[in-house]
Amino acid sequence: MTKITISLIKADVGGWPGHATVHPALKETAESVLSQEKAKGEIIDFKVMSVGDDLQLMMTHQRGVDNAEIHGLAWEVMCKATEKAKELKLYGAGQDLLCDAFCGNIKGMGPGVAEMEFEERAAEPVVAFMMDKTEPGAFNLPIFRIFADPFNTAGLVIDPSIHQGFVFEVWDIMEHKKVMMDSPEEMYDILALIGAKSRYVIKRVYPKAGKLPEDEPAAVVSTEKLYQTAGTYVGKDDPVALVRAQSGLPALGEVLEPFSLGHLVSGWMRGSHNGPLMPCAFEDAVCTRFDGPPRVIAAGFQIAKGMLIGPVDLFRDPAFDLTRQRVHEITDYMRRHGPFEPHRLPMEDMEYTTLPHVLKNLGERFADAD
Ligand SMILES: O=P(O)(O)OC[C@H]1O[C@](O)(COP(=O)(O)O)[C@@H](O)[C@@H]1O
Ligand SMILES: [Mg+2]
């Protein structure tokens, strides 16, 4: 069996209504294009999904990551879905398509991308996490806990095949630089960086020498920053991630466990507020209260010769009900702060929102204080 690539590519190409959810017609459009490509053998398999207002295309193929044909196909699907969104006058039709024409790689053109290539194991469980109303750094805490926290992942302590830990690839998304760091050896340094989640983000996690090849990622996160492409606020960079599980990697339950916290993330209304991340069932991924609170869904698959056997709606489990209850309470508490920090983001994170336009008008009225 040669290597399989999974490409998870997402974009907001029109909300229904406002920024709440994706209209079924957009998913049907995507399914019809991708079915034709599957029939032609261009891709092995696909699943069209959505979280909040983001359309998600998950595709398997054997062309490797950053492949121009696969990225071009995703672009074509997003353009056709945009045409449909315009016809239905959905909100923000084509919002995340920041370029007029495709130029070889969809990265930097608006959509978010998480891709990984690996030798398919005898049994290959993969989870696709998809978030809405937040940013790539929202994955820092759960990905760290999955691969580095022994209080989350029992296997780090008791399973000899993962006891040695993992390697983290951390990106500085402001400077566009990256650093490879070993866990547990450099755990405190990793945390020193990724605790600053609006700047340092986990891009990939790799296994150390052992059961799995060291150059095949166990996890990958989309890290595209929309404002860097658009030069202005055009919605948050709602992220996605792919995580492989079991047999030399954290177990499925260890992969899901960090999401039971309902941790605080940045995004929510106008990409300008901190709030709790709610793990929810596919059908509940509709962002309405104050355009949120931020959501995460988890689609579970077994991969069989590139076929996507799934998805299983993993957060549908009532075992996450208590998390959701806590998220409701925190949502209520945070909302009562209205425009005050720390519900509203600190000034440095507001730089790319619409707030500076409001403050500019006040600028001239400032005089020297005593
Ligand atoms: O009314 P506008 O100009 O679309 O901008 C505000 C919208 O931007 C958002 O932050 C966009 O969220 P998304 O990033 O999910 O598209 C919404 O919360 C809000 O309704
Ligand atoms: Mg969105």
From TrEMBL:
Mg(2+) 3 binds at K236, D237, D238. The active site is at D12, Y233, K236. Its EC number is 3.1.3.11, 4.1.2.13. It catalyses: beta-D-fructose 1,6-bisphosphate + H2O = beta-D-fructose 6-phosphate + phosphate; beta-D-fructose 1,6-bisphosphate = D-glyceraldehyde 3-phosphate + dihydroxyacetone phosphate. The keyword Transmembrane does not apply. GO terms for molecular function: fructose 1,6-bisphosphate 1-phosphatase activity; fructose-bisphosphate aldolase activity; magnesium ion binding. Beta-D-fructose 1,6-bisphosphate binds at H19, Y91, G104, N105, K133, Q246, S247, R270, D291, Y352. Dihydroxyacetone phosphate binds at H19, K133, R270, D291. Mg(2+) 2 binds at D53, D54, D132, D238. InterPro entries: FBPase_V, FBPase_V_sf. Catalyzes two subsequent steps in gluconeogenesis: the aldol condensation of dihydroxyacetone phosphate (DHAP) and glyceraldehyde-3-phosphate (GA3P) to fructose-1,6-bisphosphate (FBP), and the dephosphorylation of FBP to fructose-6-phosphate (F6P). Belongs to the FBP aldolase/phosphatase family. PANTHER family: FRUCTOSE-1,6-BISPHOSPHATE ALDOLASE/PHOSPHATASE, FRUCTOSE-1,6-BISPHOSPHATE ALDOLASE_PHOSPHATASE. Consists of a single catalytic domain, but remodels its active-site architecture via a large structural change to exhibit dual activities. This is Fructose-1,6-bisphosphate aldolase/phosphatase. It comes from Methanothrix harundinacea (strain 6Ac) (Methanosaeta harundinacea).
